[in-house]
Amino acid sequence: MINRVVLVGRLTKDPELKYTPSGVAMARFTLAVNRTFKSEGQPDADFINIIVWRKQAENTANFLKKGSLAGVEGRIQTGSYEGQDGKRIYTTDVVADSVQFLEPKNGQAYQNNGTTGQSQTNNQSNYTRADEDPFANSSGPIDVQDDDLPF
Questions:
Q1: pTM, whole model, 2 decimals?
Q2: Measuring CA to CA, how many Å separate 38 from each of 24, 34, 48, 133?
């Protein structure tokens, strides 16, 4: 049997951190996950309840807030309880094994500071970005000796 869930979405409100009587941390939050199709020109979303335990719960409560982009990997868990009116209430949650923070803590998207295709780097000027051509300023063929090859 397989019960695996992978989700990427935005939190609908700040996570709620609680502790069990034995001191184990537990956080709850709801993740809004867009559907791949649109209804009446607007994208539809599913609102999925997430439960996360222990240190990951504390980290989630400390670093995520309403609107944060997060990735969740876990499993679906169903349950039920009796409501105050005596009716049976059924629940479906995702119990997270892993929560990935997909944005910086301040919630701002990564910016390129107005440059065209290049990030501003302060102390990393000796490194070449992956989207730059490292041989753009070379003049002629590159001389590679057999001793330079790893095989």
A1: 0.66
A2: 41, 9, 18, 40
State the pairing for strand pair 42-53/69-82: unpaired
Q: Give CA–CA dist 61/15, Å, rounded.
A: 5
Q: What phi and psi values does residue 57 have, to the nearest 5 degrees?
A: -65, -45
Q: Which CATH number fits domain 5-36+43-101: 2.30.29.30, 2.40.50.140, 2.60.260.20, 3.20.20.60?
A: 2.40.50.140
pLDDT digits (tens, 9 = 90+) for 39-87: 677 778 899 999 999 999 999 999 999 999 999 999 999 999 999 999 9
Tens digits of residue pLDDT in 81-134: 999 999 999 999 999 999 999 988 665 554 444 433 333 344 444 554 556 666
In the block, tokens 């809004």 appear at 32
Helices (H), the chain: 54-63
Give the CA count within 13 Å in the CB-facing half-sphere of 136.
6
